[in-house]
Amino acid sequence: MSPTVQIEGDIGRVVLSGQFDFSAHREFRQVCETLIADPVVKEVLVDFQNVNYLDSSALGMLLLLKEKIGAVNKGLALVNCRDTVKQVLEIACFGKIFTIR
99: helix, coil or strand? Predict the structure, then answer.
């Protein structure tokens, strides 16, 4: 997995693909830190359109991202979640923590 970044106006989008697991940790953190540091970006969207699997380490990465985003008063949403991803997020009760669109 190599997450990519798209910036449209004040929205930064992290586009993930394949399996979102610990192997993506370094690249995911780097792209997210880029968006967090960008003063133009007010909201970060994590796009799961092309993700077919995520594990507990991915959930941990999302929680860390939520904490970092909250510290700089930016918005965060998980978007385009496929059924398998949505099911994992629901089991982990992430709907109570994250905005899922």
Answer: strand
CA distance 23 to 80: 22
Which residues lie closer than 8 Å to 76 by C-beta, 6 or more apart? 43, 44, 45, 46, 65, 66, 69, 70, 98, 99
Task: State the pTM of this model.
Answer: 0.94
Structure tokens at 98: 């994250």
Are 80 and 61 contacting, i.e. CB atoms less than 8 angstroms apart? no
Instruction: Report the distance separating Cα 24 and Cα 80, nearest Å.
Output: 19
Task: Give percent above pLDDT 90 in the chain.
Answer: 98
Residue 94 CA to residue 48 CA, distance in Å, equals 14
Q: In this predicted model, what pLDDT tens digit does every residue of 26-55 receive, in sequence order?
A: 999 999 999 999 999 999 999 999 999 999
Helix spans in 1-101 (H): 25-37, 56-71, 83-91
* Strand, coil or helix: 2: coil
